Amino acid sequence: GQNIDQPTEMTATEGAIVQINCTYQTSGFNGLFWYQQHAGEAPTFLSYNVLDGLEEKGRFSSFLSRSKGYSYLLLKELQMKDSASYLCAVRDSNYQLIWGAGTKLIIKP
Amino acid sequence: ETGVTQTPRHLVMGMTNKKSLKCEQHLGHNAMYWYKQSAKKPLELMFVYSLEERVENNSVPSRFSPECPNSSHLFLHLHTLQPEDSALYLCASSQDPTGSGADTQYFGPGTRLTVL
């Protein structure tokens, strides 16, 4: 079966750095996505990785290792508004998105 | 950001009611999706329409019936639902679901459905 694993919840301090991991086992691979979802709101796109390596976009970076079936989302200089759920999703060989259950990130002052 | 809109935002219905959820995308995309989101569970893909043709139906019970009259509008018709169907129903759209590249999905705010 297809599976995406990510931690259920993480806590970090304002101004710090946090890394949210995602491991996957899917039938085929056509890219990995990270989305942010604030409580009661729509998921919004953060990043896309299809090749190995690090993609940086401002305070957020996403890393991919296809051989290890592994990705992480790195958030720097954390702000209170970063408190949200972070969803990892992989596009499989049928171009269908397989989703993780999300990681709830709590930022403390 | 009002690229994808959904109505109503909240819906409470009894098990014998019939209701419809509406989604509209203003992004010129070719594909639209219905997802179910339950607490602490992964997003569940329910239906996919590409160029107004249904291309995916992940064993969804027949009490959920989708309709896509054109590439901008998507409906989910509900009838004789069960309490376990209570969830957040999200609509999304994307440009080209089977093409190469990112093909990012853009989501609406969702309809919070409660079945009594």
Report on the architecture of this protein.
The complex is a heterodimer of chains A (109) and B (116). In chain A, 0% of the residues lie in helices and 57% in strands. By secondary structure, chain A is mainly β. In chain A, strands 2, 4, 5, 9, 10 and 11 form a six-stranded mixed β-sheet that branches. A five-stranded antiparallel β-sheet of chain A has the order 1-3-8-7-6, with no helix packed on it. The relative contact order of chain A is 0.35. By secondary structure, chain B is mainly beta. Chain B contains no helices and eleven strands. Chain B has strands at residues 4-7, 10-13, 18-25, 31-37, 44-50, 53-57, 64-70, 73-79, 87-94, 106-107, 111-115. In chain B, strand 4 and strand 5 (44-50) form a beta hairpin. The radius of gyration of chain B is 14 Å and the shape is globular. At the A-B interface, strand 5, strand 9 and strand 10 of A face strand 10 of B.
Protein topology:
The complex is a heterodimer of chains A (109) and B (116).
Chain A lengths: L2 E3 L3 E5 L4 E8 L6 E6 L6 E6 L3 E5 L2 E6 L4 E6 L8 E8 L5 E3 L3 E6 L1
Parallel strand pairs in A: 2-11
Antiparallel strand pairs in A: 1-3, 3-8, 4-5, 4-9, 6-7, 7-8, 9-10, 9-11
Chain B lengths: L3 E4 L2 E4 L4 E8 L5 E7 L6 E7 L2 E5 L6 E7 L2 E7 L7 E8 L11 E2 L3 E5 L1
Parallel strand pairs in B: 2-11
Antiparallel strand pairs in B: 1-3, 3-8, 4-5, 4-9, 5-6, 7-8, 9-10, 9-11
